[in-house]
Amino acid sequence: MKLIIATIKPFKLEEVREALTEIGVRGMMVTEIKGFGSQSGHTEIYRGAEYAVNFVPKVKLELVVPAGMSDQVIETITKTAQTGKIGDGKIFVLDVQQAIRVRTGETDADAI
What we know:
Order of helices and strands: EHEEEEHE
Number of helices: 2
Number of strands: 6
Low-confidence stretches: none
CATH architecture: 2-Layer Sandwich
Radius of gyration: 17 Å
CATH topology: Alpha-Beta Plaits
Distance between the termini: 9 Å
Mean pLDDT: 90
Structural class: alpha+beta
Number of domains: 1
């Protein structure tokens, strides 16, 4: 099993969710986050005053999928979330040693 952590632009969330559902992803966790990468934030003007926005709003997706499905999930997220502009996000992939469904006690692939 693989844990896929993806950070994407918030307005792409619904499009990515729909694309993942189409390929058979059955669940994911979504968190609203703030962060910065190579863009290092930006400046904005509010009521005539300029101020720095050091953290940019993002959405973090966390999905646990069977190892054989991870490449397809990564490709789907990449294609769907991409705008071609700076700040499109990142994807990280980690190995998952064990998964347990709390309600039933099912483990590993049965739990996801």
